[in-house]
Amino acid sequence: MTKPRIIITDCDHENIDIETNVFRNESFTFEHLDCKTEDDVIANCQGASVFLNQYAPITEKVMANLPDLKLVVRYGVGVNNVDLEAADKYGVQVCNVPDYGTNEVADHALALMLALTRKIPHMNQLVRSGDWDYQKSIPIYRHSEQTVGIIGLGRIGTSFAQKVQALGCRIIVCDSKYKNNQSRKLPDGMELVELDELLEQSDVVSIHCPLESAYNLLDVDQLKRMKNTAYLVNVSRGGIVNESALDTALEEGWIAGAAVDVAEKEPLSADSPLFKHDHFLCTPHMAWYSEQAALELKRKVAEEAVRFLKGEPVHYPINEIHNLIKE
């Protein structure tokens, strides 16, 4: 059998030592490219059967022009840069790594929530300017008397919920997996509600759902339903919250504040009107990161590719394709 052409289409990590070791142990070789556009991928990846992919767009045009492509493994959870319909059409298996940074993302969401509810960044700035006055933080509310609404109760949403439960918060959840499957049991101490009810009752709304099914889920109408004392946290994907609507919500006081780790177009421009709001916090899509999570991600991406190449079942399939490469 001709050795498969394995390509890392793009990767902004400091090195690829982990991937190199995984492939070397299985006697596979690979190439590391820096593709930015679909035309880059098409021009440089002819004959490739396996992609390890970070940001480069894997579109229908790419798949149509790379007939040997059989697998795309994403560095991360989201697959919004991969055309899944086209993957089904062209018989391309798509995989991700959904479990490498679960605790990190949940921890980050909790940190953003606490920063907002305890008003830490704002008070830090006041103290630095010489204003030592706790009354400038009024009002702050006891967490054990707060309701936290979680949109999406997958791995990360569940981990976040468990951490928030430790604060004594009431937890309400909106998730179609539980709504549409009566046999699926919600974890103890959580209540299943409709989205409108969640927005109206929550003191904090935290988003943990995929973009593919939730683009513009929170726009003007939804944000207006929130309490004017409530906070919004998004560590999932930009585009779930309409940024123009969020700017209006902050400007007009529909909500008390928001913290995000993601933007619809990243990086979020320094000219974004969101930055004029003191009660808006933003981090640079870093919720997934810890040293341990970064190494785990790299290892699992390479190991998934190896399983596929050896004709073994993949662990993290996004679609149901079975065009395994066999001798």
UniProtKB/TrEMBL annotation:
Which InterPro entries does this chain map to?
Answer: CtBP, D-iso_2-hydroxyacid_DH_PdxB, D-isomer_2_OHA_DH_cat_dom, D-isomer_DH_CS, D-isomer_DH_CS1, D-isomer_DH_NAD-bd, NAD(P)-bd_dom_sf
Q: Does the keyword Iron apply?
A: no
**Is Lipid metabolism included in the keywords of this UniProt record?**
no
Task: Tell me which residues make up the D-isomer specific 2-hydroxyacid dehydrogenase catalytic domain.
Answer: 21-319
List, alphabetically, the CDD domains matched. CtBP_dh
Q: Name one Pfam family in it.
A: 2-Hacid_dh_C
Please provide the record's keywords in A-Z order: NAD, Oxidoreductase
Span of domain D-isomer specific 2-hydroxyacid dehydrogenase NAD-binding? 110-287
The text of the family note is:
Belongs to the D-isomer specific 2-hydroxyacid dehydrogenase family.
Q: What is this protein called?
A: C-terminal binding protein
**Organism expressing this protein natively:** Cytobacillus gottheilii
* Lineage, opening ranks: Bacteria, Bacillati, Bacillota, Bacilli, Bacillales
